[in-house]
Amino acid sequence: MSITATLSANLALEEARSPEARVAGAMRGFALEIGALSAFRMESCIHCGICADACHFYIATEDPQYTPIWKVEPFKQAYKRESSAFAPVFRWLGLKKKVTADELEHWQYLLFDSCNMCGRCSLICPMGIDVSALIEQARHAMFEAGLAPTELYEKAANQKRTGQPEDSAEPYRDKLLAIGREFGVEIPLDKSDVEVMLTVPRTDIEHYPKAVAALARVMQHLGVSCTFRSDGLVAENYGYYAGGKEWQRQISLRLIDEALACKAKLLIVPECGHAYTALRWEAADLYGKPLPFKVRHVTEFLAEQLQLGKLTLRTAETGATTFHDPCQLVRKGGVTNAPRTLMKAMGVELHEMKNHGAFSFCCGGGGGVVDIQRAAPLRYRAMENKLREVDDTGASTFITSCSDCRRTFDDARSHFNWEKTPRSLLELVADNLAGTAGNAA
Amino acid sequence: MDLVSFARGPALEVALAVFCLGVVWRIVGFALLRIRRNFNEPRNSLVKAIIGGVIATGSRSWPHSEFTVRTGAGEALGYGYHIGLFIVILAFAPHIAFFGSLFGVTWPALPNSVITIFSVLTFTLLLAVLFRRVTHRVLRMLSNFDDYFSWFITTLVIVTGLMATAHIGGPYQTILGLHILSFDALLVWFPFGKLMHAFYIFPSRAINGTLLSRKGAAS
Amino acid sequence: MAHYHDQPTIGEMLERHGVSRRTFIKYCTAMASALALPPLAGRAMAEQLRAALRPSVIYLSFQECTGCLESLIRSFSPSIENLIFDVISLDYDDTLMAAAGAQAEMARDKAMKDNYGKYVLVIDGSVPTGANGAYCALGGKSAVDILREAAKGAAAIVCVGTCSSFGGVPFADPNPTQAWPVSDIVSDKPIVNVSGCPPIPEVITGTLLQFISTGKVPDLDEYRRPKVFFGNTIHDRCYRRPFYDQGKFAKSFDDEGARNGWCLFELGCKGPTTYNACATTKWNGGTSFPIESGHPCLGCSEPNFWDKGSFYSALSAPRWGKAGEVSPGDVLKVVGGAAAVGAALGVASAGLSRLRQRHIEKSTTNNEAKES
Fold first, then answer.
1. Do B20 and C334 touch (CB under 8 A)?
2. Residue A194 Cα distances to A47, A179, A219, A269, angstroms
3. Do B126 and B151 touch, CB atoms closer than 8 A?
4. Which residue, among B150, B148, B154, has the nearest Cα to B182 in the 3D structure?
5. Interface contact A128-B29, CB threshold 8 A
6. What CATH number corresponds to the domain at position B155?
């Protein structure tokens, strides 16, 4: 199936690209990505193939093309041909072939459908190469080639234009207020001169309104001056998923501008993994200077409040529990202890999975993969191992702290008739705030 | 001029020159590319990040326990022949004499019988590594000319060395000449292929480890 | 024994000198064992030799130092007297013969004429060809002319010493006299090289004896040396070899290792690349050989041994340039020079890459500016 055929009508511009234009776009995008660091990473690969053994897509299928470093192969070739020290020699002798449009189309599947950018391969490489960083750069080039998967491209385009990845009958702002009414919690909106600016995952607005309410409730309980901003509501960044670096910058800029407008000293990223990567680690670099406020994940913030004694939690009756570590938060973000601190404070009987913490397997939905429809069969295959690990803990309660992971597991419930329900750590905290009546809704 | 004189004479001189020129060219060629500044707020101080990088430099020598079941055997094979190569290259008396006359420093040697055992082991491991590369589907897919040629030239040096010490395959000086000549060829090939990883491995681990530690991420 | 010559056979000569048949067989058996032949071959050799006519041997000395002859006359078995009186008819050797001047030249010419096609020509010394051969002349004739003339009637040529075999010292760079080994001048006769500086006396006599007893050129190696004497390296047969194998080396001539008799590889021993019989036949009637006296092998029986760098630098030591010996300073020069060029190329290629990047960036921002 040709990729172009799947592109929808509103991508006419992308569709009309000739193969030459695609290759030129990819090469242009990639050339801009090359720096000393990425060059060093590509230089260092010794073709040992060990990264395959870290990747859940390879482990599930044993299909060699899912070897992480192979996913950037065309760009490794391009680097050697275009930017490496011996590039003129390689070109002159024709030792490294030019990347073709067909190859790029094929690699779309490898760079998007079969990679969550979870970074597990970056931990296994004996040369210490951060493979997932290379994949992110390769995605930028694919975007420039007009080869971002339709779903991601459309959502990114929408978000860049309107601030919302998808059009909705009711604007998110109104939905947010409706959630407040439904759960009986005050939603601070568009205030100024606040300590904290809150954001919300679109996934929560659409699927998990309780989590949205939980955030508001916890903040209210802590008595922190905070606000949501109508024009900077959505935490996700589809520009990041699709590989549109400039779009990613513009989408981040929207939040940065709002945070500046309300003079927040802290921007809280809700339970969303990649939003954390985009805002915590990449926004300032795209902004071109340090952000004048801090960025923290909600679990980080809450764990800090707990340690400061500002937050006390009741014992939660969860029974045997296991926790799924979202890759972007834990492995790649370093938010490893915060969720465990919170669970410990609630007396959660935690049964860790075989691979947990930094070595946790990805849910399979990250990196925008859960949004790519044609990727679903592969995603399910890759997920089986994860579900087995969850089941092997014998836990009855299953918690995570990323709404995209949560959605991916929820999706697995219907697909596999899996009986566990992923729960939100934030919701659990909100339900067990000491001195409140708890919310059973 | 006989083969030995040629191999350790003009051929060695040219090979050394090509080696240095190529290695420096290749490293400078990418090290001077753009370096983007990090503007994000680090989780860990620079000192802590660097300590993390140093730890990663060492710890990446063996896979994290989570990975050993799948990769332990392959890595053991790889490290096995590397260790063998180091012992044979650095602890064999004639090699030490060679380095001594090049650089003016010498160190104690291991008995030749020990060296012979290690070189036979190393050769066996190299054969196993090649077998693995052509049979393992991931490796077969990833492999290109560089991988096979680098293997070939490394193995050639080992084989001619073994032949020279065992006095098989021809007159000693012819084999010794071939041994030194194959080493010259290895030096010439070095900067253009994956053998460069000898220079990359520790800086790569250190830099990536430092960057990951800076974020507080696992490394 | 019936014979149709006016010359006595070797057997007759022996009887005339009171050497019994038994003694001669004993001698031949010893010789056969030196030649690594089976014991019975000694008896056969004795019979063949006894029946053989004493062959005429003409010994020509060219650009040489007489060391080879000095070595030859110290042969123990057979002794030189045995050899020249009993086994061969040494018809010309300008050093040993009593005759001198025109008388000597006449003896040579007569022997060449009488034994045309049958005599053994022994050459000692290289043959200078520069200045029309003027660097070495005898009785007004240049060495190269004498050699060409003498070679015509020779049954075979035996080159004694490294000079006649491979050019030797006179041949060493820059070879001012344009000296060549015999094999570069004569190409239509069987040539046997008995190299060494000098060769072991028993190797010279043994080679001659073998040729005389069998009438055939012995098995030769790639350098036309008799395999029976030049089949193994000094290193292969060296009594210090176990120390090499254990990695025990003398580092200087007066250290613990040297006193303990350890391997001399690091002191420059060329044993591993040198084919000769020193380690087995030894010198001075089997008394000793250089390594046994604590000195590394110089590799004197190998071609170009004089041009292979210091006798005292290890075999594996790198060497290049005019000076030959490479010091760490020379290495630094090569390494540093190459690194400097490499750095310049690196800067250039990185600069080129960055320029391209900037160009792309500029055109991309321009396009975006147009779009918005």
1. yes
2. 52, 22, 12, 16
3. yes
4. B154
5. no
6. 1.20.950.20
- Taking each helix axis from N to C end, the angle separating B112-135 and B145-166, rounded to the nearest 10 degrees, works out to 150
A392 touches C: beta carbon within 8 Å: no
- Rounded to whole angstroms, how far apart are CA atoms C179 and C172? 9
Tell if the CB–CB gap between A28 and C364 is shorter than 8 Å.
yes
Task: Select from C53, C72, C91 the last residue of a domain.
Answer: C53
CB within 8 Å: A36 and B207: no
Q: What fold characterizes domain A3-147?
A: Fumarate Reductase Iron-sulfur Protein; Chain B, domain 2 (1.10.1060)
* Cβ atoms of residues A322 and A292 within 8 Å: no
Residue B53 identity (one-letter amino acid)? G
Facing C314 at nearest CB: one of B31, B34, B101? B101
CA distance B95 to chain C (A): 8
Q: Is the ipTM of this complex over 0.85?
A: yes
For strand C89-93 and strand C56-61, is the pairing parallel, antiparallel, or unpaired? parallel
Q: Do A47 and B142 touch (CB under 8 A)?
A: yes
pLDDT digits 0-9 by tens, A362-401: 999 999 999 999 999 999 999 999 999 999 999 999 999 9
C285 shares a domain with C355: no
Geometric angle at alpha carbon B91, from B89 and B92, rounded to 5°: 75
Are the Cβ atoms of C345 and A88 closer than 8 angstroms? Answer: no
Q: A85 with C346: CB under 8 angstroms?
A: yes
Subunits that touch chain A (at least 3 Cβ pairs < 8 angstroms)?
B, C
Kindly state whether residue C218 falls inside one of the protein's structural domains. Answer: no
Closest CA in chain A for residue B198: A44
Confidence of residue B109 (pLDDT cuts 50, 70, 90): confident
3-state secondary structure of C92: strand
Give φ, ψ of A365 to 5 degrees: -100, -15
Which residue type does A21 have? A
Count of residues in chain C: 372
C247 in reach of chain B (CB within 8 A): yes
Cβ pair C341, A85 in contact under 8 A:
no
The continuous run of DSSP H or E covering C232 comes out as none
Domain count, chain C: 4
C353 touches chain A (CB under 8 A): yes
CB of B54 less than 8 A from some CB of A: no
Name the stretches of chain A with pLDDT < 50: 1-10, 12, 438-441
Shortest distance, CA A11 to any CA of chain B (angstroms): 32
- Interface touch A32/C364, C-beta < 8 Å: yes
Q: Can you tell me whether residue C179 is helix, strand or coil?
A: strand
Provide φ and ψ at C137, rounded to 5°.
-140, 145
* CB of C367 less than 8 A from some CB of A: no
Give the start-to-end residue ranges of the domains of chain A.
3-147, 165-306, 320-431
Smallest Cα distance from C272 to chain B, Å: 7
CA distance A48 to A127: 10
Q: What is the domain range of residue B67? A: 3-214
Query: Is the CB of B196 less than 8 angstroms away from the CB of A43?
Result: yes
Q: Which residue of B has its CA nearest to A327?
A: B217
Query: At A326, which amino acid appears?
Result: P
* Helix axis angle, A36-44 to A73-82, nearest 10°: 110
Q: CA nearest B106 in C: which residue?
A: C251
Instruction: Give ∠ CA C225-C231-C232 in degrees, rounded to 5.
Output: 130
- Name the more confident of C186 and B112: C186
Whole-angstrom distance, CA of residue B20 vs CA of residue B12: 12
Q: Which residue has the higher pLDDT, C26 or A9?
A: C26
Give chain C positions within 8 Å (CB) of B118.
Answer: none
Phi, psi (rounded to 5 degrees) for A196: -130, 135
Q: What is the pTM of this model?
A: 0.83
Question: Structural domain tally of chain B?
Answer: 1
Q: Are C60 and C186 in contact (CB under 8 A)?
A: no
